[in-house]
Design a protein that fits this description.
The complex is a heterodimer of chains A (361) and B (144). By secondary structure, chain A is α/β, with parallel strands linked by helices. Helices cover 51% and strands 16% of the residues of chain A. Chain B is globular, with a radius of gyration of 26 Å. Classes of the chains: A alpha/beta (361), B alpha/beta (144). At the A-B interface, helix 2, strand 3, helix 8, helix 14 and helix 15 of A face helix 1, helix 3, helix 6 and strand 5 of B.
Amino acid sequence: MMSRALALSVIVPVRNSGSFLTEVLEAIRASELPSNTYEIIVVDDGSTDASVSVAARYADTIVRLSGPGAGPAYARNRGVELAHGEIVAFIDSDVVVRPSTLPRMLDMLGERPEIAAVSASHNEISGASNFVSQYWNLLLRFGEQRHAGRCAHFVPGCGAIRRNVLVAAGMYDEWRFEIACLENVELGQRLLGAGHGVLLSSELMVTHLKRWNLVSVCQEVWRRSRLLARSLGYLRMSSAVPSEVVFTLSRALTPAIAILATLTLAAAFLPSPHAIAKGSIALSALILSNLPVHRFYARMRGLGFAIVSAPVHIFVQIISAVALCTGWILRDVFGDLTPDATTQAYSEVGLEIWPPVRRRV
Amino acid sequence: MFRAELNDLLNWTASSPRFDQAGASAGAESLAQERERVGERSARRRLTPRKSLVVVLPDNHVVSPELVAERLPSTGDDETVDVIVACAGQPINLGVLQRRVHDLQVLLAPSGTSVEKLRELAIMQAPGDIVTLLSGAPRQCDDA
């Protein structure tokens, strides 16, 4: 098979994303790029809905992975193995790009050879209009704005990277990151460690369509925080990664403050003449420690939104603090995450099969 | 997720290799058994992905046989690719394509079927783990 050189390969990992996929792929096809300079590779990670049919309308290549779902890190790596582009862009199956997003990414990488990867940040307006989606979208936007520029974080959702750099770095860590979470953070840190620049652009914005509710946000925060503590090590990451992006706490000291506040708040319910005072102190400490976030909410959506989001944010922080502690305990007791025994055995034997066994970086 | 984590924490003493030597040797045995099972299972699994090439030809569209041949393995390769041509109406240069590609599968859809619909139909028929989709170009006047 002859190899075709292209400027860009757009890789979209998909799992049961039929409802968003048309909009996502149409937006990619509407990019201000000549159609013969890029390709779209959709990697279907065992969808049971109509994702493959939808993908077929727009994609140049479709990879069908069977099984229960190997995760986006694994799916993206399978896409990279088939990519012909010098630059590889990863776009999540709920992310809508603007017509100028991909060309701007190519320009940035062309103009700045010291930069190996560039990512877009969250649009101020979320695709879903409910309160929790807006709260979460703005929280991530806040973190990205504060840490825009060169950083150690290849933002999930929409990012472009030089293919040769990605391959040399060992691609995504599919061994540890079976669930969608911090694989981009880990990759960003590896790229930085190898001396490559990673740029987070605040001018490039993409819209996330996923609708969040309080339960799904808490689950996401739980997973991120636990994985952060268990697999990446909070102290190691906090210096290099925007904390709002990794989990929801806005300052490095906030986990400690959140735990103290929770304990104080619990103590406030004990019979005591100073119970209200104790509770007020704890709540004030939490709110003050997150003042920049609340001010950002007020600026973006008004005072009412900021006031309503304050208790939600405190609740989410408490979840994050507990998850961090859980992650630390799990790391200490069980060690880092590893795949199941079957995967490990396949990997040790070193068999070449399809779909491939998850690889170690 | 919460419940699974809680169970992990509650059960850690029973399964932690650090605190339970018996658990550790049981874990090693299980890995060894798994390795044996992997050896047996691997004989039944495919070693390489199956590949398909879908060529989509709406009304009055053609594809150059050279372009199709470009996407196929060269003569020396062991790799095989299933080729499916999905056409709306009567295909124009199918004979030329059939001479270049053996075992061509043709899907005929009614005239006027859109590219998107043809692609959808073809992907359902394509058996490959990796499917490449190639669209034809509008027929030029001198092709007629």
